[in-house]
Amino acid sequence: MALFVSLHTFGQSDPKGERRVTGTYAIVNATVTTSPGKTINGATILIKNGLVESIGNNLSLPPEAQIIPGDSLFVYPGFIDGASGAGVSKPADPERPADFDSSNPPDEIAGITPWRSVLDNYDPKSSQISDWRKVGFTIAQIIPEGGMLPGKSAIVTFGGKTSSNILANNTAMGARFRNVGGGRGMYPGTQLGIMAKFRDLYKNAELSARHNRLFASTSGVARPEMNKTLEAFFPVLDKNMPILFEVSNDLEIKRATALQREFGFNLILTGVTEIDYALDDMKASNAKVLIGFRLPNDKTANADLEGKTEEMQSRTLKIREAYKSILEGPSKLEAAGIPFGFTSMGGRSSEMLKNIRLMIENGLSEDGALAALTINNANIMGIQKFAGTLEKGKLANMVISTAPIFSEEAQIQHVIADGYLFDYDVSKKSKANGENGKTIDIAGVWEYTSDTPAGSSDGTMEIKKEGDSYKGTITYDNPAGSGKASSEMNNITLSGNNLSFTFNVSAGGMALEVTVAGDVSEDDFRGNMSLSDFGSFPLNANKKPNQSNQ
């Protein structure tokens, strides 16, 4: 534990709002939720050398304690991400040998690299980490990129840039039914092929482990051949390491749980969205579950049925039913007594709390949502002894907000991660319908500037109101050369004074989805532009006068 929380002297805040928290300090007179369902009003948290020293009312504070006023603030345990790709890059594909056989390719070329560590391709200084920390995440299990068996995961903190931030290595073996050799003309090329290959590897690993034990304990036994792929399975066979299976639908859940029932390994399912048809399979396999909080586009689900053909109405109703089923999934797990956690994989930091609020509106309790962000993931990852709740002796990882965390008014003002205090600017949010019951008028032409590592750029956003929704077009510097390119603005959403939308950019043969979100007034926008693989960058805009397009 000393390795995790070794601290230095308290430093001055740097320009990014990051400062090292050491020595002794106290958050005074705050509303503190120590764990789901347990809240202390007007409480003080005393922190010493990065650990929680005590929590309660009317604590006697030592004279050296540095005071942080907690009046009107709400404190929660730091969020824990059950499966994250923040800061993780994909290893380069190896070259094919001259005698390459597509029906029996080498493991590494076929995407079978369970011996790899995700830390070999992890950048702790990635801006993606800053994005997720800003919405409350303090610890994450990072998982490797790659093929069928991409490697082993690790648990890291989202603390300062001068520390390794590593809590544990080789915590789970990653597995998936996609991004495999079949897309490059080799075996295994289908999900059934992956199932067969997995069985082959697992059974051979069992034989190899048995041979190794026999060789070590008995004379007259031939020396076993060393095989790093099979040896990577040994801790899984011993049930010292779970397999973390990425799944994207109920069929993949059924296939992963079928493998678990056949071999008996410890299973974590991550990216679960479809619950109804796989609930019994998850129960039967005793799987631990990580829910993705990214939701599908609700534009079609919320479309007006008036004037549509009977066929289109039927399709829309089916989409609406499927969308609602996804929203209700977490509440069904909660009702079934299956503890689950949240994973950020495939999600956007700007949408996290909004989408969790939608799940709460569809039956998930607030305590269940908080548990999925904290203690449930701590239990799934085996770190509950020092994380997941606020208790004496545990790491002082915290989320401090201006209102109850799942309320629309909540803004995260401070995050403490691994002994670092991160301060964030908060602004007074407008009422949903403005000061006089009037919705903010975002229709018009906006001129924006954005700053990225490549330099500053600018463009325009033209937004038009059509009925109850919005349409728009954004211009940007053309990646293919000089001049400007344009793209349709998708999913334009105005919630109170929060504006968000997405647009697509074609660059270097890749289609990139860009997410923009921030606070808006009648003539000013302050937000961020996020690209999932490249981080988040400021984007600010001003509305041109006399350009209403309503």
Summarize the structure.
The protein is α+β, with helices and mostly antiparallel strands and 550 residues long. Helix content is 21%, strand content 33%.
Describe the protein in words.
This protein is of the alpha+beta class. Helices cover 21% and strands 33% of the residues. Strands 1, 2, 3, 4, 5, 6, 15, 16 and 17 form a 9-stranded mixed β-sheet that branches. An 8-stranded mixed β-sheet has the order 7-8-9-10-11-12-13-14, with helices on both faces. Strands 18-19-20-21-22-23-24-25 form an 8-stranded antiparallel β-barrel. β20 (469-477) and β21 (484-495) form a beta hairpin.
Poorly predicted segments: 1-16, 430-436
Indicate the proportion of strand residues: 25-35%
Taking the alpha carbons of the first and last residues, their distance comes to 60 Å
Counted beta strands:
25
Taking all Cα atoms into account, the compactness measure Rg is: 25 Å
The largest β sheet comes out as:
9 strands, mixed
How helix-rich are the residues, as a percent range? 10-25%
SS content category: alpha+beta
Determine the mean pLDDT.
86
Total helices: the number is 11
Instruction: Please state the overall shape, judged from the principal axes of the Cα atoms.
Output: globular
Secondary structure: elements and pairs:
Elements: H1 2-5, E1 18-20, E2 24-35, E3 38-48, E4 51-56, E5 66-69, E6 74-77, E7 79-84, H2 127-134, E8 137-142, E9 152-157, E10 166-176, H3 191-217, H4 228-231, H5 234-237, E11 243-246, H6 250-263, E12 267-272, H7 279-284, E13 288-292, H8 310-335, E14 340-343, H9 352-361, H10 366-373, H11 375-381, E15 398-401, E16 412-417, E17 420-423, E18 444-452, E19 455-466, E20 469-477, E21 484-495, E22 498-507, E23 510-520, E24 524-531, E25 535-543
Parallel strand pairs: 2-5, 2-6, 7-8, 10-11, 11-12, 12-13, 13-14
Antiparallel strand pairs: 1-17, 2-3, 3-4, 6-15, 8-9, 9-10, 15-16, 16-17, 18-19, 18-25, 19-20, 20-21, 21-22, 22-23, 23-24, 24-25
